[in-house]
Amino acid sequence: MSWELAGILYLVLMVVLLLGGVWIAVALGMVGIVGIAVLQPPLLAGVASIVWGQLDSFVLTAVPLFLFMGSVLMGSGVSGRFYRGLAPWLARVPGGLAQSNIVACAIFAALCGSSVATAGAIGSVAIPEMRSRGYDPRITAGTLAAGGTLGILIPPSIPFIIYGSSVGESVGRLFAAGMVPGLLLTLLFMLFLGVQAKLRPALMPAHEKALVEGKLKTIPDMVPILALIVVVLGGIYAGVMTPTEAAGVGASGALGIAALYRKLSWAVLRQSLLETVRANAMILLIVVAAQVMSFALVSAGVPRGVVGWIAALDASRWVVFGVIVIAYLVLGCLMDALSLMLLTLPVVYPIVQALGFDPIWFGVVLVLLLEVGLITPPVGMNLFVIQGISGRPLSEVSWGAFPYVIIMLVEILLLVLFPSIALWLPAKAF
Fold first, then answer.
1. Are 6 and 302 a contacting pair, CB within 8 Å?
2. Which 3 state secondary structure label does DSSP give 316?
3. Each residue's pLDDT tens digit, 214-245
4. Closest CA to 125 of 400, 384, 397, 389
5. Ramachandran region of residue 210, left (φ > 0), alpha (ψ -120 to 50) or beta?
6. Residues of 330-340 as b/e, b for ≥16 C-beta within 10 angstroms?
7. Rounded to whole angstroms, what are the CA distances from 185 to 150, 180, 376?
8. Could you tell me which of 317, 304, 7, 368 has the C-alpha nearest to residue 153?
9. If I label 147, which of 186, 190, 316, 322 is the partner at 20 to 30 A Cα–Cα?
10. How far is 337 from 352, CA to CA, in rounded Å?
11. 337 near 374, Cβ under 8 Å?
12. Is residue 410 scored above 60 in pLDDT?
């Protein structure tokens, strides 16, 4: 069977199963196995080796450890203490608590690695505070939904771990590549909020200015979290620890911080372990199923055929890149981030390599595109998280997040014009 016909067959089967409500992981694995069994039966025996080879990965061990670290910090209430401690320090910045949302999300993202968890952890504390002070609901929802997306860009980032494991790139270099773009995106969010606060002050009422004494009292709520970030990320960039080892240190540090605040209990530990197991099982099931699907596509020659077809078009590589960006923006509205990445990488990554794009740079751009999908309906997960916490209409939350979609697209343009934004730190650190 030609690669064109095989690709169409796989695509049609995937669409039918997904529209039928089949779980993405099940659909991926089922289409891959059935496709191999029908088109290339002798290769079916190799599926077990593919699955084992994917799971037998030291890099992937970091995923449950980072998930556990975030679960402990949320379940013990440490994230709430950190947010309340941070707010007084930003009282004089135009935007007040709205700025606190962005900064708190950025810092918590450096510990959590998950956008949905970041939005939920900070949102559960921030929304009551902002509501009581009269902040516009769209401002509240937008800052939390968009701020939460920083969880998969600022390292440690679970999508970076999965991307690195899938394509064979260094996770440490990907973490370093995401740092400067993550900080830049945070600053762009804050700049937008500051301008908005000046032009439309009624949306973000200024609250009382925090006294120096009040600020000093909040230091114990912030120092342990900041110290843990320095140890985890500093250990990776200094070459002292691998990302997996740093994840283990981070998980232990989270337990230590919860114990320091006397918030570590059997109930918190049990809940954190259950949440970690559930999330990790879901992620690894998708990873394994996507690897089976990738094996089926590669065996049928689909990625190689697509690369050859694009080369025959003799189109500019930036035209092809633009098509890839548009495809991710559209698909991001319909699929969750991790599934979208794993579903498309077997075809997209060979194209990116053939066009000469740096795989580390593309990893950062890809994560940014996935971030956009997290705050665009109808399947924007962060929108549903904030809508559930706030009780506001989903349309209101979506419109509140819309300006940040534009800002993310601007950052992608900056990465295209200045690739060193993503590549400078990896070159220095590794």
1. yes
2. coil
3. 677 778 888 888 888 888 888 888 888 888 88
4. 389
5. beta
6. ebbeebbbbbb
7. 8, 8, 17
8. 368
9. 322
10. 19
11. yes
12. yes
Angular region, 21: left φ>0, alpha ψ -120 to 50, beta rest: left
Which of 2, 221, 186 has the alpha carbon at shortest distance from 99?
A: 186
Strand, helix or coil for residue 393: coil
| Mean pLDDT calculated for residue range 141-154 | 85
Distance CA 157, CA 116 (A): 12
Mean pLDDT of 45-64: 78
Give the residue carrying structure tokens 């088109």: 39
Residue 147 has a CB neighbour count (10 Å cut-off) of: 33
d(CA 233, CA 243): 9
Alpha carbons 25 and 75: distance in angstroms, whole number: 28
- 87's enclosing H/E stretch is none
Residues in the chain: 430
More confident residue, 275 or 214: 275
In sequence order, the 6+-apart residues with CB closer than 8 A to the CB of 411 are: 181, 184, 185, 188, 368
pTM check: above 0.90 = no
**Cα separation, 152 vs 95, whole angstroms:** 24
Q: Which amino acid, 42?
A: P
Q: Encoding tokens for residue 217?
A: 């009292």
The separation between CA 399 and the C-alpha centre of its own chain, rounded to angstroms, equals 21
Sorted by sequence, the CB contacts under 8 Å of residue 22 that are 6+ apart come out as 30
Query: Tens of pLDDT along 325-383?
Result: 998 888 888 777 787 888 888 888 988 988 899 999 999 999 999 889 888 887 677 88
| Alpha carbons within 13 A on the beta-carbon side of 58 | 7
Helix count (H) and strand count (E) of the chain? 21, 0
Show the 3-state SS of 253-284: HHHHHHHHCCCCCHHHHHHHHHHHHHHHHHHH
In 10 A of CB 208, how many CB atoms? 10
